[in-house]
User: What shape does this take?
Amino acid sequence: MTLYPKLILEALENVRYPGTGKNIVEAGMIEDNIRIDGNKVSFSIIFDKPNDPFIKSVIKAAEASILTYLSPEVDIKGNISVKTIQDARPEPEKLLPDVKNIIAVASGKGGVGKSTVSANMAVALAGMGYQTGLLDADIFGPSQPKMFHVENAKPYLEKVGNRELIQPAENYGVKLLSIGFFVNKEDAVLWRGAMAGNALKQLIGDANWGELDYLLIDLPPGTGDIHLTLVQTLAITGVVVVATPQEVALADARKGIGMFTGDKVNVPILGLIENMAWFTPAELPENKYYIFGKDGGKRLAEELNIPLLGQIPIVQSICESGDAGSPVALNHDTLTGSAFWKLAENVVERVHYRHEYLSPTKRVETRK
Assistant: This one.
């Protein structure tokens, strides 16, 4: 039979780690280095510590599962190596050393316009003269290729030094990578959490991002494996949280903020963005209709003692421009464009504040 990594992972899903009861793929214990040479298969299993009492039993179970579920002809005996978390994961600050600031854009729930905010903030930062990248980390619902009008882009591998790296697509001065470039846009992405996490790690560590002032990461909504993978992989400068004014959205935003500020994650919150703050019809630009409630995001920011970075109105042109692949922030003289530019300016200010006052050993260079 023809062997490939997905088959190996499927076989390993039958192996459970006794300490947690989870299968070793779901638990993120398989390093994304599965090597196949004919019938020979080798890979590493990651354990928390080198003296884990279950190492031998897990390796034997992994060998048996591959031989049982794939083929007894697979050469696997003695080819499974052991790594600890410290060995397997590079220190976050050593990954992407040429990226000065990494900003995660998060939301407690879907449908609050997080991807629209991410796209327009990236365009605004690039328009201000900052070298900017955007990683679409919403593995199961990638939308940035459409918003940047690069749906048909096919990122290619480029040799950089001794490595072959993925070359990001680029438009409007923003470097962009998304899982949407590598899957059929008509098909659902049916991946388990570990597979999604490994795909995200590749888009981060195996891409030629080059020198960037800002790398924005458009996270999936909610809290889950992708968020944990991100904070374990990268040294995040801070998180901006997007919410809408109604209470149900604010309740989820509060949970998301709690996750990032908790002891296990501990990532700084740069501030809150209140999206869809009010509706303004094009023919009555001075009118404001608070269809989702008034100042809910502002009140939450005050309650949690975090900055309110901006209030973005509902305007028909924002949706139309996103669907057309032409973000409204491309024109900062418009009402909506100026709102996103002001938002980007506030994010830059917060980043500078953190570097200047909270981390005095780190400085941010400003490019204009």
Summary: DSSP finds eleven helices and 13 strands in the chain.
